[in-house]
Specification:
It is built from six helices and two strands. By secondary structure, the protein is mainly alpha-helical. It folds into two domains: 66 residues, Orthogonal Bundle (Arc Repressor Mutant, subunit A), CATH 1.10.10.10; 51 residues, Iron dependent repressor, metal binding and dimerisation domain (Diphtheria Toxin Repressor, domain 2). It has a two-stranded antiparallel ribbon.
Amino acid sequence: MNIHKSSEDYLEAMLMLKKKHGYIRSIDVATLLKVKKPSVSYATKRLREAGYITMDEENYIRLTSLGLEIAEHMYERHTLLTEFFINLGVDEKTAQEDACKVEHDISEKTFKAICEHVNNKKS
């Protein structure tokens, strides 16, 4: 699946907002990602055209099944990598920031190895 890193960030943010509030609004996406509203408008237009989101009459955003799949994948990577970095002794803020950077570029093979390592530490 060929998708831009910024689109992955937007989809992940949308999933996080849905989990937190039960709905997704553009203004909340802008706040969470620390971007301006026009940037969100441009991104949501691209995401709609690609079939990752829909918007209703009141401009609430909904993830399509494809958008949700990508968002959940990125959220899982972010969460697990954050936990991994914290277990290494990194403070939570830095671990969150680094996980956000690494989640896009790490190979599936390496990610699975980290998953196995983290899950073995829990056992």
